[in-house]
Specification:
The complex is a heterodimer.
Chain A (H helix, E strand, L loop, with lengths): L3 E4 L2 E4 L5 E7 L5 E7 L5 E9 L2 E4 L6 E3 L9 E3 L8 E8 L7 E2 L3 E5 L1
Parallel strand pairs in A: 2-11
Antiparallel strand pairs in A: 1-3, 3-8, 4-5, 4-9, 5-6, 7-8, 9-10, 9-11
Chain B lengths: L3 E3 L2 E5 L4 E7 L4 E9 L5 E8 L4 E4 L2 E6 L4 E6 L8 E9 L8 E2 L3 E6 L1
Classes of the chains: A mainly beta, B mainly beta.
Chain lengths: 112, 113
């Protein structure tokens, strides 16, 4: 049972490039989320989904897109990378109310 | 809006108890969580408490919730060097979905010999 799997683990991009961070879970969880972690700021919610086909914005959505075509996958897209998006990105999933979120190991992204 | 605050740093000696504190602002919080993050790793759920509970104990971990003061604490008994990590408090508001947690900034616990 892999849990929440994020790929890649590390990535370096140039300003203006685009890329997709992958997130997959094998626990049949309806709820999935993307957070970014920056020093001294804890984790901030970027986008989240309450089920396949349903997504919504979190606290810091600008510059990011998501889609949820299947229950298992919740990719995060950076359309035009900016240095301010240098961060560690975490994907999480949960079964629902009262259940804790399970986190992936993170993707460390640097934008030059 | 929701806000969760924690102190940034705590240092304790091995074998002593650690108490990590957290305050939150949203009185409608339903669940409160403690996560542990070791260097270079993701977040590991330690424990969580429902808002109608005052205390929860799980082996070396004790969670205390003072709902009136909106204060949550995590006590680690007999702290070991392996407990050195960053500890995050997080809350889920009543109006939020299970996907939305608000995290504190994290408390870095340093365990000295």
């Amino acid at each position: 049972n892999a849990g929440v799997t994020q790929t890649p683990k590390f990535q370096v991009l140039k300003t203006g490039q685009s890329m997709t961070l992958q997130c997959a879970q094998d626990m049949n969880h309806e709820y999935m989320s993307w957070y970014r972690q920056d020093p001294g700021m804890g984790l901030r919610l970027i986008h989240y989904s309450v089920g396949a086909g349903i997504t919504d914005q979190g606290e810091v959505p600008n510059g990011y897109n998501v889609s949820r075509s299947t229950t298992e996958d919740f990719p995060l897209r950076l359309l035009s990378a900016a240095p301010s998006q240098t961060s560690v990105y975490f994907c999480a999933s949960t079964r629902g109310a009262g259940q804790p979120q399970h986190f992936g190991d993170g993707t460390r992204l640097s934008i030059l | 809006g929701e806000d969760v605050e924690q102190s940034l740093f705590l240092s304790v000696r091995e074998g002593d108890s650690s108490v990590i504190n957290c305050t939150y602002t949203d009185s409608s919080s339903t669940y409160l969580y403690w996560y542990k993050q070791e260097p270079g790793a993701g977040l590991q759920l330690l424990t969580y408490i429902f808002s109608n509970m005052d205390m929860k104990q799980d082996q070396r971990l004790t969670v205390l919730l003072n709902k009136k003061d909106k204060h949550l604490s995590l006590r680690i008994a007999d702290t070991q060097t392996g407990d050195s990590a960053i500890y995050f408090c997080a809350e889920r508001a009543l109006t939020g979905t299970a996907s939305k947690l608000t995290f504190g900034t994290g408390t870095r616990l340093q365990v000295t010999l």
